[in-house]
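dude i think i finally got it to work??
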Amino acid sequence: MKNLKILALLTVIITLNLWASDEIPITVFHTNDLHSHLDGLKVPSGDSYEKRGGFARLTTLIAKIKNDKKDEITIGVDAGDFFAGTIFSAIALSNEKDFPEYQYFIENQYDLLTLGNHEFDPKNDGLEYMLNKMENNPRKIPLIASNIYTTDLSPLKKYIGNDKLIRPYLVKEFKSSKGNLRVGFLGVLGPDGCLVSRSTRGDVHFVGFDDHDSKQQLGKLVDHLNKMIQTLRQKEKVDIVILSMHGGGKESHELAAKLKGLDILVAGHTHNQEFAIVNGVVINQTGSYGENLGYLEFVFDSKAKKLRFLNAEGNHVITVTDKIQENLQWKTRVDHWRTKAFKLMGQGKTDPNEIVFIPKKSYVRSFAIPNPMGELITNAFRTELNEDIKQAGNIEDPVDAYFTSMGLVRTSFYKNTPYTRAEIFEAVSIGYDSNKQPGVDVVTFYLTPKEVKTIINFMEIYTYVSTSFSPAISSNLSFKIRKWGIPFVNRIYDIELDGKALSGYERPIKIATNKFVVLNIETVKKITRGWIDLQPKTKAGEPVLNYPVHPKEYQLLIEHFRKNPRLY
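look at this
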């Protein structure tokens, strides 16, 4: 009887071991929209602030995850827009050998990287320069862009292909003490990302968006990806499929609902924290700027060939607080690169760490109309431009109004938080000049009062399609919105410039904006099928051939706050 009990116990133990060996633990850590935030960002904490994110803290956190899971499979994914947003982005486009953003991915052993819309901010020749740096890195990680295609003459075409730096998919074999796993990786730029990068992508196109008509074609993207998933499942014999999508919210949900055979979708672009399970697909997005690290745990049943999600009810991100110790090597690098970047931007005579602004109240970035953060910065731009015009003793007209979009306003300013020159740049960091230095030029031109009204109408109503177009306008140009009104008919009303009805102006209106906005005027024409065809003009009414160039937005903002550190 005793021997039978021992035999029964051994049978149970063996059975349990066999059952356990069928399940392969998997942890996916992921990021999105890092936007060159090597040094993290300041966020409110009570009456003060704390620092979150930063490559030094992320590196510490990822190293801990890998150590804790050293006998298991860990997979690293980034969902694009890893570049552009801080002064550090100057380094990748310089003659310096370093490419900080890419070095971070390599050293933390990410498996899947994809392109976001902001990788195209320095246009194709700027992206080509970065791709060349990647290509020459002996430890390079390929970029996965499953829906990209180019013209035959595109200089980027040489980087795209099954065995090239930019690939349609990737298959990797992962080994662990619990078993092996074959994973298929896909990556896409979503339709909204295509829309907002149309003016900078040139001859690079993406399945799912018609560049000619600026029109979403999600159905084509679904068909395209379903064929690729079928290839991964049937030809490549993968166990699971992971998609990195630079797109989120409605886009990521619609895609997950219509794809067959997809397991995990890491989202991006919207800068929101997002978690959902749609059609069995686990969707997660961390927010932005490295403030959180995505964290997903699964087990794969190797017999049943099923993936099971473990932390459906738990936390899906780890907040990267200042309580996480910084990796010393990365901290030292970041400190060095901060000074180097400012020199590369032509700001070497000033200290990037100099505090120039401590707001008395918070100015939170949102897409509401009007938006206090948008009005704060556009008023500052207009004030400084007109001060420059006045001091120069020019007969040039003062700027009537400053236009931009909240999609180009990248951060908030929080009460009692000190902001350095480098951090002020981050608020208006999108775009590059002709020398590939961060920050686009401010330009001026003239529009008729009717055209100004048209711009306001378009930006307000198109906000419901893409929040990137939500208007930020200097507060001396005001208007009201009838939520029930008819667009371009009576929705926008009581438009006033300096307290006078816009319709009462018989002269042209002098507008200032950044050149990134000007580049997108053609996109607006395509979106509206030519119905809105704005033409920036000289004061004499002739089309502008050479825009008058003024200091960059970040330079205007730093100067304004330096002179008025506690005004706001």
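The first helix runs from residue 2 to 22.
im so relieved honestly
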